[in-house]
Amino acid sequence: MSPSALIQTLKGCKKQNLTLDQYAMLLILDDLQDVDCTALSAALACTSASITGRIDRLETRGLLTRSFHKEDRRQIRLCITPLGKQLLGLVETETTL
């Protein structure tokens, strides 16, 4: 990503009240569809414990959902919501202006 594209992305995130980390989380969830916390933290190169608060904030805003894995209730699955997809679109719109 070029410096100017990064600046535009940061501006779009700020306008939508998203941090760059939150934006990255939503992009990953949108791309992978249904992931667990371990896969998300690996994609972000951080620990599962360090993303819990970020997940909480995105869930509170209705941008992602958590659900238990059908076969292993210890695993929590994360999915982007339609509102989360809409917010990604708004940020992308800001970056192309």
Summary of the model, kept short:
The protein is an alpha+beta fold and 97 residues long. Helix content is 63%, strand content 13%.
What does this structure look like?
There is one protein chain. The protein has 97 residues and is of the alpha+beta class. The protein has a single domain (21-89), classed as Orthogonal Bundle (Arc Repressor Mutant, subunit A). 63% of the residues lie in helices and 13% in strands. The protein has 5 helices and 3 strands. It has helices at 3-15, 20-32, 37-43, 48-60, 82-96, and strands at residues 34-36, 64-68, 76-80. Strands 1-3-2 form a 3-stranded antiparallel beta sheet. A hairpin with a 7-residue loop joins strand 2 (64-68) and strand 3. The longest helix is centred in the C-terminal third of the chain and has 15 residues, at 82-96. The radius of gyration is 14 Å and the shape is elongated. The two termini are 16 Å apart. The mean pLDDT is 89.
Beta-strand proportion: 5-15%
Q: Enumerate the strands of the largest sheet in spatial order, edge to edge or round the barrel.
A: 1-3-2
Tell me the CATH topology. Arc Repressor Mutant, subunit A
First and last CA, distance: 16 Å
